[in-house]
Amino acid sequence: MSFSELGLSGPVLKAVEAKGYDIATPIQLQAIPPVLAGGDLVGCAQTGTGKTAAFALPTLERLHASDIDRPRAPRSSGAPRGQRVKCPPIRCLVLAPTRELAAQILASFQKYGKFTKLRCAVAFGGVGQGPQVRALQQGVDIMIATPGRLLDLKNQGYVDLSQVEVLILDEADQMLDMGFLPDLRRIVGATPTTRQTLMFSATMPPAIEELAAQWLRDPARIDVVPQSTPAERVEQRVYFVESRNKPRLLTHYLNTSGCGRTLVFARTKHGADKIVKHLEQSGIRAAAIHGNKSQGARTRTLEQFRSQRPPVLVATDIAARGLDINGVTHVINYELPEVPETYVHRIGRTARAGASGAAALFCGGEERGHLRSIERLTRTKIDVEANHPEAAVFAKEAASAGGSGRSRSGKGPAGPKGTGNAKPSPWRGKKKGANAGPSSFGKKRRPFGKKPGGAPSAGKKPVAHAAAK
User: Fold this and answer.
1) Burial class (CB in 10 A: 0-12, 13-18, 19+), 215
2) What does each C-alpha distance from 250 to 88, 263, 335 come to in angstroms?
3) For the residues 341-360, what does the mean pLDDT come to?
4) Where is 233: in which H helix or E strand?
5) 57, part of any domain
6) Which of 201, 284, 379, 402 could lock 172 by a disulfide, CB 3.0 to 4.6 Å apart?
7) Which of 57, 156, 47 is nearest to 96 (CA)?
8) Residue range 63-71: mean pLDDT, rounded
């Protein structure tokens, strides 16, 4: 169905046609009509499905239609020294969990609303607030913001939410995971109860359902794909590996898998930096993006990743959430996420716009519980990749454990049950000396002059230190 058949018209439809978009995606087909009708909506859809346009297009259409007869607030020319310029109220508020996602949503509103007179602005932390304050003082119709910076500006008197007509919560589940619920409650409480509220999320856990019941009125519900279902065009493989050998497995994978634009997920900021250091020492260009990086550094890294010669991008889940980057061919879960829903978000970075992709899971022995949680959530039995340097090690360990290692599809064991007497890893360094015995590290040493049973050796007396005499 075309966008004109969905009810878009005038300058919004002109902007869509200028971008060459003709046919709406499934989530756009389901979301645009009820949003245009002014109703509340809860949408569950994976990233890369056209979700941003699903709420941006009808919101722009409604605001533009009411903007024709609405008196335009004059642009401020400043205030006398010592006096603060009163900021005009905001008409539409979009909340997003990360800076990058907020910036992408702003770009979408500007792209689709370029033939209207609606003013858009963004507010997030990590940068000075000066430009954001000046934009608010000039008058903003549509504000895209992260919760923390928005509350900071509101507490300073720069944000007026008393006339918000449309409130949009994007990636709502991630905002809850990041601890934004208290901020969200304060923000929602400052908006009119008569507002239209739209809530979008890639997953729909019970906590989101509870908030939807509190903040939305008889919302329409759309679920484009079954909740927590990975993209169908993503080939998923699990690689069992001892955790200390993950850096070398990563190098092996990148050198042998024909990777194009590749995204590696780490659990912590420090871990992401360590991975980048290892890859650069191995001759592989890499860059990290996480919360400790300045906004300028994060922006430059993303520009490099979008270039024709992209480095391997190592990211934490929070920093990478909602990134809209086309052409990602491989997603590597260097560490499995503790929250299984996060896995769905990770692999949603690839296989976009009809393309195919690959997802690799590097699973250490202590992460097998996380793998089982992912498989239960996604209802998917992920195949084990046996053709890698660690496969022989795990096959040996499974055999030594009496065949207790769980095997799938005959492609190899699921992982070690214990250290046993497994053959050393092909990447593990050899001990010095031909006859080097097992290490005594960690063994409890018996006191000098004592037999294993604890009695003093015959003919020997305990030695007393000179200081004790």
Assistant:
1) buried
2) 52, 12, 11
3) 83
4) none
5) yes
6) 201
7) 47
8) 74
Residue 147: which domain range?
Answer: 10-67+84-223
CB 347 within 8 A of CB 341: no
CA 204 to chain centre: 16
Q: Do both 48 and 178 map to the same domain? A: yes
| Tens-place pLDDT, residues 142-171 | 999 999 999 999 999 999 999 999 999 998
Q: What is the DSSP string of 185-217?
A: HHHHHTS-TTSEEEEEESS--HHHHHHHHHH-S
The mean per-residue pLDDT over the stretch 51-71 comes to 86
| Residue partners of 359: CB distance under 8 A and separation at least 6 | 230, 234, 235, 236, 237, 330, 331, 332, 333, 346, 347, 350
- Return the bridge partners of 223, or none: 44
**Domain boundary residue, one of 361, 376, 400:** 400
Q: 168: Cβ–Cβ under 8 A, 6 or more apart, which residues?
A: 55, 59, 92, 93, 94, 95, 197, 198, 199, 200
Q: Is residue 79 assigned to a domain?
A: no
Chain-centroid distance of CA 251 in Å reads 23
Using pLDDT thresholds of 50, 70 and 90, give the confidence band for residue 225.
Answer: low
| Torsion sign, CA atoms 103, 105, 106, 111 | positive
Structure tokens at 223: 């679920």
Give me 379's structure tokens.
Answer: 């209802």
Query: What's the rounded Cα separation, in Å, for the pair 115 and 449?
Result: 91
Overall residue count recorded for the chain in this entry: 469
Q: Cβ contacts of residue 429 below 8 Å, gap of 6+?
A: none
In a domain, 176, yes or no: yes
Q: What is the pTM of this model?
A: 0.70
pLDDT value at residue 399: 64
3-state secondary structure of 290: coil
What's the confidence (pLDDT) of residue 227?
A: 53
**One domain for residues 44 and 170:** yes
Q: Quick one: average pLDDT of 230-239? A: 84
**428 domain residue, yes or no:** no
- What per-residue confidence (pLDDT) applies to 66? 87
Q: Could you tell me which residues come within 8 angstroms of residue 234 by beta carbon, excluding any fewer than 6 positions away? A: 331, 347, 350, 351, 356, 357, 358, 359
